[in-house]
């Protein structure tokens, strides 16, 4: 997997966090960069950690499923992508305390579950995990920061589009991996 594909996967994974960050930005009357940095750090950190955890789990089972790894990658990315598109219909939750650290950690975990599955996929594709974890974390951090700012400036109009776009990107990457391994490309 090349650096372009890795960047595309990182962007796709970041769309959940971006959409939630937009929702958090909606709850800020005046932009506070401290909150944006906290949100972006939590989301980027958990995306990185979950990707690494998935990779480590995937490496444990690599020898057993090497002949069907492309199918597993395809199915995981397809399911995650379809789920992201379905979740795009959800409404932003503007709770009374949008910056409760407990709620932010739960959101960071929830938005990074798909990174766990993608981490498993990365193990099968023999990706440089250090680079992948850094790229996924940095991209998620940046997009989450931008999401908070965007939510604060423009409101909820990008939330659904970000989720749908992230889902489409992951589905497309799943098909690309499958087709490469079936020697069609």
How many domain modules? Answer: 1
Structural shape: elongated
Mean pLDDT: 82
Low-confidence stretches: none
CATH topology: Growth Hormone, Chain: A
Q: Measure the end-to-end span.
A: 14 Å
| Number of DSSP strand runs | 0
Provide the β-strand percentage band: under 5%
Q: Architecture, CATH level 2?
A: Up-down Bundle
The radius of gyration is: 16 Å
CATH class: Mainly Alpha
Major sheet attributes: none
Describe the structure concisely for a colleague:
The protein is an all-alpha fold and 185 residues long.
Fold and architecture overview:
This protein has one domain: Growth Hormone, Chain: A (Up-down Bundle). The chain starts with a helix and ends with a helix. The protein has six helices and no strands. The chain is mostly helical.
List the SSEs and their pairings.
Elements: H1 3-26, H2 33-65, H3 69-87, H4 101-124, H5 129-154, H6 159-181
What attributes does this structure have?
single chain, 185 residues, mainly alpha, Growth Hormone, Chain: A, 6 helices, 0% strand
